[in-house]
C-alpha cells in the first residue's frame, strides 16, 4: 500500500434522499494492482466523522466506484473527503470478495489525518440531504447536450455555463435540490457516426471523452456541491442509435464498449432500482420522477412503422392502458409496462401532485418535417405505439399533471398538452418542457424555433389514440446555450430558461420571462 492520493476524477454527488447519499469517484491509478477508495463523512463542520469506510474501485468499472452512506439527518449539510490507495496482493487478478479484501486493510480511521491533508478541490464534496416531509415547494435544475469541441478554447466555452448553473442553486424561490443532465454528456461521434475522424471506438477513447468532460473546473465543482442525476442519449454511443444496429458485428462491439463506459461514469451513481436496466425512478420530497432509457431499447422497423417501440417491447400479456389487478402485472414487464404502472401508482399515492417523466427524447413538439414524415424523427413521434399506450394510460386512469422533462434538440421549449374526446376537452393536464443545449456552437444548423410545430391544431399535428386526441401549444423557445430551473409546488410550476451568463432568456406570450404552468 502507498500513501493516500486524491481521486483522479470526482467526487460526484449522486442519488441523495433525506437519509442517504451515493457518492462516486474514479481512482487516479491505472496500474494492474487493486485500487481502494476511502471516504470520511462529516456532519456540517464537525471535526469528528460520522462514518469512515473503504469501498471498491473496480477494474471492470474503469476504477470507478460509489460509497453509500445511510441513516443521515434530513435537510442537513454534510462534507465528505475522499482518497484512494493501491493495494498490492499476490495475484491482483484473483477474485476476492469485498469483505475478504477489507480484512487485509487496517481500520479506516487510520487514514483520517491523510484524508484531511488532501487538496480540497479534488477530494471534497459538500451537499445537503433532502427534506423529510413530502410536498411543499421543490426546486431543481436540468439541461442536456454539451458539445465538447475539438480545441481547448471550445472546451472552455463548453464549461462556462456550469458556473451559471451553480450561481442559480440559491434563489429567492429556495435552494435547488438536484441537477438533471439528460443526455449527450459526451459526444462519442464528434463529427457524426459516418466520420471516422475523432470518433470513439475503443474503451480508452470513451474513457478519454468522459475524463475530458467531467474534469473541466466548473462542472467538476458543481457536481461536488449538488446531487446530479444523468441519463444517456445517442451521442453516448453514436448519432441516432437504435437497437437494430446491434446485429452488425462492429456495432455490437461499439455498443458494448460505449455502455461499459456509460455504466462506469454515469449510471453507477444513479438510483439503480430496476436491476441492471438503465432506467430508474426516485422521489424527492414527495415528488415522483421516472428517468427513461430511450436509446438502448428503441426498436425501429422500417417496413412496419406501427411496430416501432421507443422503450422496448411491451410484455406479451401487458394490460396497459387499463389498470391491472396486482396479480395481472406482467411476468416479464417491459420498460413501458414499468412506466405505466409507476404512473398509476403515483396518482394513487400522490394524487394530483406533478409526476415527472425524464425523457432525453422530446415528447412534444414535433418538427415540421416530422408532421409529414414521422418516420424521419428521432423522438416520440417516430414511435406511435409507445406514445399511444402511454397517453391512453394517462387518460384511462385520470392521471393528472404529468410533466415530461426533455433534451436533445438544441432548443428549449415549453409545451402544454390538452386532451379531447367526442367534442369535449377532458379535465387532464400535461406538459412537456425541453432544455437544450448546454453548449452547441452551430445554431445555424440545428435547433431553429421555426423548424418546430408551435400549435398542433393549426399545423396538422394532433395525435389520435382511441377516441381521444392530444393537442399542444408551445412557447418560450430559446436557441442560445441554456439550462432550465424548475420551481414547483402543489398548485403550479415555474419554468425559467437561463443562459450561460446566468440571465433569463425568452419571453412568454404574456410578457413574463418565466412560464407559469398551473395545475
Structural class: alpha+beta
**CATH homology superfamily of the largest domain:** Alkaline phosphatase D (PhoD)
Instruction: Please report the distance between the alpha carbons of the first and last residues.
Output: 58 Å
Rg to the nearest angstrom?
23 Å
Task: Report the sheet-strand fraction.
Answer: 25-35%
Number of helices: 11
Q: CATH first level of the largest domain: which class?
A: Alpha Beta
What does this structure look like?
This protein is an alpha+beta fold. The protein folds into two domains: 9-128, Purple acid phosphatase-like, N-terminal (Immunoglobulin-like), CATH 2.60.40; 138-518, Purple Acid Phosphatase, chain A, domain 2. 19% of the residues lie in helices and 27% in strands. The chain contains eleven helices and 24 strands. Strands 13, 14, 15, 16, 17, 18, 19, 20 and 21 form a nine-stranded mixed β-sheet that branches. A six-stranded mixed β-sheet has the order 12-11-8-22-23-24. Strands 4-3-6-7 form a four-stranded antiparallel β-sheet. A hairpin with a 4-residue loop joins strand 1 (9-16) and strand 2. It starts with 8 loop residues before the first strand and ends with a strand. The relative contact order is 0.11. The model has no long low-confidence stretch (mean pLDDT 92).
Amino acid at each position: 500500500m502507498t500513501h493516500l492520493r486524491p481521486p483522479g476524477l470526482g467526487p460526484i454527488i449522486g442519488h441523495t434522499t433525506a437519509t442517504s447519499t451515493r457518492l462516486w469517484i474514479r481512482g487516479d491509478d491505472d496500474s494492474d494492482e487493486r485500487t481502494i477508495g476511502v471516504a470520511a463523512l462529516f456532519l456540517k463542520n464537525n471535526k469528528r466523522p460520522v462514518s469512515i469506510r473503504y469501498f471498491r474501485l473496480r477494474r471492470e468499472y474503469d476504477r470507478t466506484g460509489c460509497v453509500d452512506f445511510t441513516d443521515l439527518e434530513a435537510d442537513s449539510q454534510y462534507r465528505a473527503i475522499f482518497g484512494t490507495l493501491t493495494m498490492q496482493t499476490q495475484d491482483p487478478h484473483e477474485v476476492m470478495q469485498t469483505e475478504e479484501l477489507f480484512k487485509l486493510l487496517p481500520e479506516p480511521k487510520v487514514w483520517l489525518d491523510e484524508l484531511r491533508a488532501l487538496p480540497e478541490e479534488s477530494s471534497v464534496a459538500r451537499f445537503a440531504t433532502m427534506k423529510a416531509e413530502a410536498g411543499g415547494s421543490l426546486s431543481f435544475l436540468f439541461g442536456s447536450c454539451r458539445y465538447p469541441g475539438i480545441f481547448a478554447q471550445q472546451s472552455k466555452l463548453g464549461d462556462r455555463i456550469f458556473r451559471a448553473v451553480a450561481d442559480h442553486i440559491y434563489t429567492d424561490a429556495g435552494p435547488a435540490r438536484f441537477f438533471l443532465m439528460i443526455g449527450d454528456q459526451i459526444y462519442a461521434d464528434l463529427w457524426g457516426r459516418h466520420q471516422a475522424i475523432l470518433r470513439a471506438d475503443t474503451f480508452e477513447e470513451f474513457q478519454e471523452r468522459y475524463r475530458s468532460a467531467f474534469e473541466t473546473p466548473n462542472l467538476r465543482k458543481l457536481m461536488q456541491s449538488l446531487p446530479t442525476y444523468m441519463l444517456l442519449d445517442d451521442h453516448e454511443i453514436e448519432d441516432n442509435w437504435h437497437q437494430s444496429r446491434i446485429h452488425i458485428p462492429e456495432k455490437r462491439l461499439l455498443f458494448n464498449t460505449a455502455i461499459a463506459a456509460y455504466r462506469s461514469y454515469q449510471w453507477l451513481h444513479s438510483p439503480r432500482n430496476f436491476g441492471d436496466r438503465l432506467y430508474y425512478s426516485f422521489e424527492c420530497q414527495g415528488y415522483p420522477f421516472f428517468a427513461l432509457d430511450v436509446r438502448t431499447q428503441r426498436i425501429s422497423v422500417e417496413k412496419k412503422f406501427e411496430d416501432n417501440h421507443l422503450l422496448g417491447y411491451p410484455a406479451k400479456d401487458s394490460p396497459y392502458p387499463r389498470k391491472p389487478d396486482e396479480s395481472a402485472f406482467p411476468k416479464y414487464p417491459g420498460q413501458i409496462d414499468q412506466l405505466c404502472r409507476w404512473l398509476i401508482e403515483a396518482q394513487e399515492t400522490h394524487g394530483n401532485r406533478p409526476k415527472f417523466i425524464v425523457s432525453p427524447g422530446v415528447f412534444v413538439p414535433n418538427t415540421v418535417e416530422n408532421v409529414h414524415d414521422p418516420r424521419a424523427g428521432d423522438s416520440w413521434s417516430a414511435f406511435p405505439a409507445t406514445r399511444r399506450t402511454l397517453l391512453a394510460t394517462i387518460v384511462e386512469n385520470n392521471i393528472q399533471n404529468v410533466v415530461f422533462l426533455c433534451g436533445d434538440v438544441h432548443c428549449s421549449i415549453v409545451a402544454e398538452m390538452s386532451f379531447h374526446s367526442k367534442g369535449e376537452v377532458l379535465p387532464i393536464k400535461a406538459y412537456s418542457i425541453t432544455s437544450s443545449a448546454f453548449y452547441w456552437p452551430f445554431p445555424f444548423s440545428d435547433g431553429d424555433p421555426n423548424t418546430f410545430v408551435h400549435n398542433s391544431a393549426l399545423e396538422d399535428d394532433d395525435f389520435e389514440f382511441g377516441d381521444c386526441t392530444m393537442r399542444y401549444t408551445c412557447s418560450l423557445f430559446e436557441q442560445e446555450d441554456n439550462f432550465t430551473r424548475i420551481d414547483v409546488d402543489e398548485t403550479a410550476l415555474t419554468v425559467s430558461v437561463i443562459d450561460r451568463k446566468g440571465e433569463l432568456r425568452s419571453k412568454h406570450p404574456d410578457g413574463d420571462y418565466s412560464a407559469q404552468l398551473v395545475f
